[in-house]
Amino acid sequence: MYAFAYERPATLAEALALLEAHGPDARLLAGGTDLIIRLRDGSARPAVVIDVKRIPELCGGIREEDGRLVIGASTVMTDIAADARVRRRFTALAEAASVVGSVQIRNRATLAGNICNASPAADTATPLLVYDATVVAAGPGGLRRIPIDDFFVRSGVTTLAPGEIVTAVELPFPDGPIGAAHTRRTRRRGHDLASVTLSCAVDATGRTRIAYGSVGPRPVLVVDESGILADPVAPAEAKAAVLETVFAGASPSPRSMRASPEYRLAMLRVLGARAIATALDRMARG
Amino acid sequence: MTRTVPISLNVNGRPRTVDVAPNHTLLEVLREDLDLTGTKECCLVGECGACTVIVDGRSVDSCLMLAIEADGADVLTVEGLAADGRLSPLQAAFLDKGGVQCGFCIPGQIMSAHALLAENPHPSRAEVEEGIAGNLCRCGCYEQIFEAILATAEGVER
Ligand SMILES: Cc1cc2nc3c(=O)[nH]c(=O)nc-3n(C[C@H](O)[C@H](O)[C@H](O)COP(=O)(O)OP(=O)(O)OC[C@H]3O[C@@H](n4cnc5c(N)ncnc54)[C@H](O)[C@@H]3O)c2cc1C
Ligand code: FES
Ligand code: FES
What we know:
A: Uridine Diphospho-n-acetylenolpyruvylglucosamine Reductase, domain 3; 3 domains; B: about 160 residues
């Protein structure tokens, strides 16, 4: 790896000051499961690497605050997947966290790193969209809350401003009963990003939120109010017709090494039908 | 050359102080500065698990962690498993079940299995498969490796 300087701020203020001082020459380091690879292959060459893992404001773990579950930026996938509240109330997020990479990767990979890296295939992106999460970012001007649907732009690019640091992700507890699920297709479990990711949540009012990724520059959220997807007895053909409109936003790249566009679009339909069935089943069980 | 920084860490129960360059991984420092070459270098992209060590109780790919990040940490490598010249039950089971062919992946497999059993002493076969999904074996000894881990788990019970 090329030579760089390393900083380990002990406070958020110190980290923000470092970012301000070094501007584009600095890069934040969380679990490093994306960044270290890029430092080694030279596709990222910051002069200064700022390790955020010992900033208390980012390390608050998982906590409940005024009707929301707040997940600190540095929380790793292992802890998200194991948290009883996440498993019970935000099942699709727990499922997504539990399939990221391998045990070794999940022990390091953080939630903030996953969304800030902004891979279209990021597993936590689709559940966060489905649960209407909010990204909390600290910057020179104070704290800013960004709805997750306004956060992703394309691979590696978010609406985070230069100089901003994600401190937490907030999930509002759903008002009523919901059923949710996360599904994906991958070539090799434990070693590869997904070729298609899809999460969905159905609620008692008949609304279905579906988010899918890895089939375009950024993950896409669609809210279906027709009631057909959330209707346990609606015929499969009726659901398939609604899903066609839901997936209109998919535009998989023909140049991807992981899967052809045809395969991805076909799998999107399979995963969509499957995830909705699972979500409905979960809602019925309560 | 960037300047080196002194870090203190505990490796296999022994306190160590090392001067590390910020761009050196934990893997490089273990192998090159501390002469602990049991931990293997292979893919360097977090896919094979040959470099697995346990940091503060959790398995990690040491090729994806800077040594400087381990400042203050407890690190366990494969060299730390045997006590008084005797293999740990897990290591012995790997030999017993014929889990070792060329051996290159084995330190990583054993560290993943060690972390799994520390957290879940009686894993199901599916849990063992998931527990070492991040460790590739080019020789394809997976069956024997599963058997060795499950046999150790049973031994724990007895
Ligand atoms: C073998 C392997 C398998 C993988 N499998 C999967 C998978 O199945 N699914 C999946 O989604 N991902 C997968 N990944 C990718 C990666 O593990 C995840 O994206 C992970 O969540 C990244 O988090 P990190 O903490 O390691 O981020 P880092 O690598 O530390 O950082 C990633 C990016 O986020 C920025 N960043 C980090 N923290 C902050 C912050 N607080 N504020 C602002 N910016 C920040 C960094 O500057 C960097 O640009 C895999 C990676 C590997 C190596
Ligand atoms: S060398 Fe670290 S995972 Fe392969
Ligand atoms: S024993 Fe040869 S790679 Fe596993």
